[in-house]
Amino acid sequence: DGGITQSPKYLFRKEGQNVTLSCEQNLNHDAMYWYRQDPGQGLRLIYYSQIVNDFQKGDIAEGYSVSREKKESFPLTVTSAQKNPTAFYLCASTRETFTGNTIYFGEGSWLTVV
Amino acid sequence: GQQVMQIPQYQHVQEGEDFTTYCNSSTTLSNIQWYKQRPGGHPVFLIQLVKSGEVKKQKRLTFQFGEAKKNSSLHITATQTTDVGTYFCAADSGGSNYKLTFGKGTLLTVNP
């Protein structure tokens, strides 16, 4: 079945460490997105990519980095510069980059700093 | 930038009661989408509204898009325990640089 796969589902990080969250889609979608969800804050956009080898900062990009070397993959690195990384991270994709497209979400990754 | 206000933040109802969540944008929208996130799950697309004044129904759910295309509502008639979750609106201001701005969501809990 087509879909978006995020891994790991649960991740613990020590302070000062970088961690990378994986996101793979087999929907042949052009655009991919990373959102962060905190309780009561809704979904906030971290980074998005409209095509391979190109990506743009979202509303809360500081302390995060991404790459888009393949159409299917859009990994997110949470760096040690992110001061409050504990959150639920959602990867998403849309078929095209034009308006009106439905967003498909992965099942999410829970990151906890210990 | 784009701002989307969604109210209420929380709503607790008795099973069988109605529920409404509202979404307001600071700018005119190209379209608005609604998503539902079950507890512990991920957001799932419900519907998209495009036309001014549009009303769409899905069984007990009624979605409306305002005449000015700046506000929208989701109404659930006779709630059931399966309706529990957080409902998000997502505003699309249009253009080729496509990204949605999500409201903070309304958490609905239903007492059986």
What does the model show?
The complex is a heterodimer of chains A (114) and B (112). By secondary structure, chain A is an all-beta fold. Chain A contains no helices and eleven strands. Chain A has strands at residues 4-7, 10-13, 19-25, 31-38, 42-51, 54-57, 64-66, 76-78, 87-94, 104-105, 109-113. In chain A, the strands form two sheets. In chain A, strands 2, 4, 5, 6, 9, 10 and 11 form a seven-stranded mixed sheet that branches. Chain A has a four-stranded antiparallel sheet with strand order 1-3-8-7, with no helix packed on it. In chain A, a hairpin with a 2-residue loop joins strand 5 (42-51) and strand 6 (54-57). The mean pLDDT of chain A is 91. With 112 residues, chain B is mainly β. Chain B has no helices and eleven strands. In chain B, the strands form two sheets. In chain B, strands 2, 4, 5, 9, 10 and 11 form a six-stranded mixed sheet that branches. In chain B, strands 1-3-8-7-6 form a five-stranded antiparallel sheet, with no helix packed on it. In chain B, strand 6 and strand 7 form a beta hairpin. The radius of gyration of chain B is 14 Å and the shape is globular. The mean pLDDT of chain B is 93. Chain A binds chain B through residues 31, 33, 35, 40-45, 48, 50, 56, 58-59, 90, 94, 96-108, and chain B through 1, 6, 9, 30-31, 33, 35, 41-45, 48, 50, 88, 90, 92, 94-105.
